[in-house]
Design brief:
With about 210 residues, the chain is an alpha/beta fold. About 40% of the residues lie in helices and about 15% in strands. The protein has eleven helices and eight strands. The structure holds NADP nicotinamide-adenine-dinucleotide phosphate. NADP nicotinamide-adenine-dinucleotide phosphate (NAP) binds near residues 6, 30, 31 and 90.
Length: about 210
Amino acid sequence: MKIGCIGAGHIGGTLARHFSGLGHEVVISNSRGPRTLSGLVADIGNGVRAGTAEEAAAFGDVVVVSVPYGRYRELPAGPLGGKVVIDTCNYYPQRDGHDAELDDGTTTSSEKIQAFTGARLVKAFNAIYAANLRERGLPRGNPERLAIPVSGDDGEAKSLVCGLVDAIGFDPVDAGGLAEGGRKHEPGSRVYTAELPAGELNTLLDTGS
Ligand SMILES: NC(=O)c1ccc[n+]([C@@H]2O[C@H](COP(=O)([O-])OP(=O)(O)OC[C@H]3O[C@@H](n4cnc5c(N)ncnc54)[C@H](OP(=O)(O)O)[C@@H]3O)[C@@H](O)[C@H]2O)c1
């Protein structure tokens, strides 16, 4: 599969490493330009290439968006339209500035990114610490395997992303649609960075955020 990454930091860089290690073709990008990614490209290997955010968006059948939420209006909406986008972003007002619609609960960060880009957006990998995402993947069936909540409104896109979650060593747990499911694994929710196996994660998701 062709995978673009917009954002090559703790989470975007880790996912690029995992996905390229599985044999996927990966193009990474950041805000400062491809030249600033030469060290990371060399470190990851696996044929990973660097491009602009527009190039990563156009390249990917799946595009990871892993930037500070406050930067989402800089995303290349045109090439992201209709694509399967994995949104790892969280809203932290102290970092991102205040967003009134998120502060009053009118909507969620993922719905806003979906509306801005027109993508088939799936929220995933937002509720696990980067170090755990990097190091704690395990084979299916291992009782210690951690679960990752996944939410989205497009069933086909969500299935595809669940397959990627599983392939890198985590149990995907369907948290529902973006409006409700997304809220259940946002910062401040009970499952956020709780780093739990699937059974316990499901119980917490079912009993409310
Ligand atoms: N760190 C965690 O443990 C963790 C866990 C789960 C979710 N998250 C969430 O995931 C997102 C990324 O977190 P992170 O920790 O990976 O952040 P990070 O290490 O600070 O990396 C952010 C990346 O986004 C890039 N970026 C910023 N604006 C951009 C733009 N307009 N176009 C393209 N790239 C842009 C940055 O590039 P430049 O450096 O060139 O600006 C950088 O590569 C955040 O929303 C965060 O809240 C983080």
